[in-house]
Amino acid sequence: MKSKDYFDGISNEWDEIRQSFFSDSIREKMCEAAQVKEGLTAAGAGTGFVTEELLNRKHRVIAIDQSQEMLDVLKQKFRSIGEISCVQADA
Fold first, then answer.
1. What distances in angstroms separate CA 22 from CA 1, 27, 39, 65, one per listed residue?
2. For the chain, give me the number of helices (H) and strands (E)?
3. CB count, 10 Å around CB of 28?
4. Long-range CB contacts (< 8 A, 24+ apart) of 1-5?
5. 78-87 pLDDT tens trace
6. What is the three-class DSSP state of 50?
7. What mean pLDDT is predicted for residues 55-83?
8. Which residues contact 73 (CB under 8 A, 6 or more apart)?
9. Which residues contact 87 (CB under 8 A, 6 or more apart)?
10. CA 53, CA 69: separation in Å to the nearest integer?
11. 41-44 vs 83-88, strand pairing mode
12. Terminal CA-CA length for the chain
């Protein structure tokens, strides 16, 4: 099975599945380690796990994902929060 097919199929459950891999606190640690500064443009993808932290830090986000279904979930979650552009593509 191709990864795109997998993520297309589980897009609505991904946020719950993801919790078994890593906790919410990792977002903040990732941004701190990358020395993310407020107001920049950053990349995010999937259903928005990292995107949420980037938006909290006042970033513009370009979400790139091969799965349109994952992007659809991301857009639904954050449609009224921050500036997000979504692009379906292989990165």
1. 24, 9, 26, 20
2. 5, 3
3. 13
4. 3/66, 4/66, 4/67
5. 888 877 889 9
6. helix
7. 88
8. 11, 12, 14, 15, 47, 48
9. 62, 63, 64
10. 21
11. unpaired
12. 18
Residue 91: name the closest of 59, 63, 49 by CA: 63
Residues 6+ apart with CB under 8 A from 3: 66
Measured CA to CA, the distance from residue 66 to residue 21 in angstroms comes to 21
CA dist., res. 24 & res. 41, Å (int): 22
Predicted structure pTM score = 0.79
Angle between helix 49-56 and helix 68-78 axes, rounded to 10 deg: 30
Cα dihedral across residues 21, 13, 30, 67: positive or negative: positive
pLDDT at 28 over 90: no
pLDDT at residue 42 tops 80: yes
